[in-house]
Sequence to fold (302 residues):
Amino acid sequence: MLALACARLFSQTQVPEWCRALPRPEYRTLQRVPVSDAWFEVYEVARGVFAVYEPHQFEETISYLILGKKQALLFDTGMGISDLKKVVTELTHLPILVLNSHTHNDHVGSNWQFERIYGMDTDFTRQNARGSREDAQAEMGADEICGNLPTGFDPKSYATRPWKITSNTHDGDRIDLGGRQLEVLATPGHTPDAISLLDRANGLLFTGDTYYPAPIWLYRPETDLDAYAASIHRLAALAPELKLVLGAHNIPVASPSVLPRLEAAFEAVRTGKVKPRPADPGQVVYQVDEFSFRMRAPQPKP
Fold:
């Protein structure tokens, strides 16, 4: 039924290869929540936690709405292709605080719609808050879209709009939503401002792009592999006290046991135990069991 609805709403002549895998079977076990905008799919993945999924663009970005008794936190705001604020207000009437897992364009696209935005106190965050047309336009290729774009959306003018940081946040900060406390964990590596979010009382860890069940991108100029190794070591140590790991792309839930396996897989790459295969120019992919790391190609030795 879901696949048929997707085909009717987002039909196109040329179907990208990645799109043919949709809908992902893991979603069958999750509780779907109806919303008015067909660009999004929403699932309640834990008590008071909604995964807001964008399956019709290659990134398959997932933002999370986390409810407390007094306010709600929106962890990322996705692509900015359709009206996220409208969907969020259908899910809750609580005041919304936005916090980004990092500030790549596919995670801050709807920041401009919200009044309260916490940002990591980094130059990278402040630079990205100015918006970006180039990065946004790269998301609009013919093989990036799974079906039709929302009515009224103009891909030629698509850009990540500027947004205002209303408060700085730092490693170890705690955010009280009322009956639910979230802890900010600095997990740099993918970007200098990457964070994870820990709901310790409920055993939930939101990992952004530090972990998600798809090729993990570690090739951009801002990526720091040493910092990434330290960050996943920090997260792996939390695994015994967790119930769910919630990443920012493709599939929203994973077992906490994935974190020590991720650390071991990346260590195998870093110690030269895994041979890369060529990818895009200047890039290679390392595959270790279920993990895939897209990285800069090694430089030839002089």
Observations:
- The chain has one domain: 2-296.
- Residues 1-13 have pLDDT under 50 and may be disordered.
